[in-house]
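Subject: for your reference before the review

Hello V.,

The reviewers asked for a structural picture of the protein, and I figured it would be easier to keep everything in one thread rather than splitting it across files. Below is the amino acid sequence we used in the manuscript, unchanged from the supplementary table.
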Amino acid sequence: MAQLGSASGLGPEGRRFESCHSDQYMNTSDSSSIDAIRAAKYISFVSTRKNGTPIATPVWVAPLPHIGPNVFGFTIDANAGKAKRLAHTNTVTVQPCDIRGRIVEGSPIVSGTAVVISGVEAETVRDAVARKYGFTYSVFSIYLWFSERFGSHKDQPETAVVVTLNA
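And here is what came back from the structure prediction:
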């Protein structure tokens, strides 16, 4: 299994896992790193399982300047693995990536803490994401609307993750 600091290995269920915890780029939390996260279309959000295995997930992320200069957020399903992992540890790393989670070569890794929120607070995160992604989010929201009314997301509260990056 890939551990923090390793370049690659096998992840859950033996799938290939490219860790974004390369020692070459660790501890790069500075203003240019925060700017890289702010400008990224997708980020690789890495949280850890109870056994220490890092799990990377590509997510849309939007800055939340009304909370703080180094605060970002994204929406999730209330039952998502990210929410379960954050219930036991709030330490995370983020790094710019593409839609498939492939890390942008040479991009900085930024560490921080994350919390799961719901209700009205999560709606403000959703609105920030909608503003950043515009038409693309509007199209995606059609899927969300159907899922909330007819699918497995029915009767679940609006849920989001707020990440505070170390500056």
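For the response letter, the relevant points are probably these. Helices lie at 31-39, 81-86, 120-150. Strands lie at 8-10, 16-18, 42-48, 54-59, 62-63, 71-76, 91-97, 110-118, 159-165.

Happy to draft the paragraph if you're swamped.

O.
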